């Protein structure tokens, strides 16, 4: 049977490692790629390889980009006195889609989670603190997700930033508890940003 083939098992396992892809979705994707014309499957493979080669991390905000600094950090029209901290690049993308925020970003690439072995060093929190210490930033908006880890990360960041004479605010939680920014609609995100509170 096809699903017993080692190459197919490896492809299934690769799909299952993707977020939100379970066993059945992995099977559908695998069967689609194996049934599709060869050029369609190869185009996907080439697109993945090309993106992996070209996309890097912005040296300033740590967002994913093809240029360094990224288009947001290099845009002189952005509000350089406001910095929004998000867990993942998907959070920054979601806020950008809302169109209400005009400041800069700092992407953590995770949250503090001792059970998973993730601490402040793995999130490059010192890089965030360094950006604020260099001056010019009046407000840091913490936009971590409304999860236990997101809340703990927000509290840790507020404590680290407290001595730096900067306003630290938290987005309002129109974003449902336990959900990620990337799943919220544009209006909810805009209201959450407008209703942020001091930490």
Task: Please characterize this protein's 3D structure.
The chain has 199 residues and is α/β, with parallel strands linked by helices. The protein has two domains: 2-54, Helicase, Ruva Protein, domain 3; 76-198, Dna Topoisomerase Vi A Subunit, Chain: A, domain 2. Helices cover 44% and strands 14% of the residues. It has eight helices and seven strands; from the N terminus they run αααββαβαβαβαβαβ. It has helices at residues 6-16, 23-35, 38-54, 71-74, 89-98, 125-133, 148-161, 186-194, and strands at 56-57, 64-65, 79-86, 103-107, 139-142, 167-170, 197-198. Strands 4-3-5-6-7 form a five-stranded mixed sheet. α1 (6-16) crosses α2 (23-35) and α5 (89-98) packs across α8. It starts with 5 loop residues before the first helix and ends with a strand. 26% of the residues are buried.
Helix-strand blueprint:
Blueprint: H1 6-16, H2 23-35, H3 38-54, E1 56-57, E2 64-65, H4 71-74, E3 79-86, H5 89-98, E4 103-107, H6 125-133, E5 139-142, H7 148-161, E6 167-170, H8 186-194, E7 197-198
Parallel strand pairs: 3-4, 3-5, 5-6
Antiparallel strand pairs: 1-2, 6-7
Short description:
The protein has 199 residues and is α/β, with parallel strands linked by helices.
Using the 3D structure, state the CATH architecture of the largest domain. 3-Layer(aba) Sandwich
Helix share, percent: 40-55%
Distance between the termini: 58 Å
Quaternary structure classification: single chain
Class derived from helix and strand content: alpha/beta
Query: What is the residue-averaged pLDDT?
Result: 90
Return Rg in Å.
20 Å
CATH class label of the largest domain: Alpha Beta
CATH topology of the largest domain: Dna Topoisomerase Vi A Subunit, Chain: A, domain 2
Tell me the overall shape. Answer: elongated
Strand order of the largest sheet: 4-3-5-6-7
Main sheet record = 5 strands, mixed
Strand content: 5-15%
Q: Count of DSSP E strands? A: 7
Q: How many distinct folded domains? A: 2
Question: How many helices does DSSP assign?
Answer: 8
Q: Secondary-structure element order, as H and E?
A: HHHEEHEHEHEHEHE
Stretches with pLDDT under 50, minimum 5 residues: none
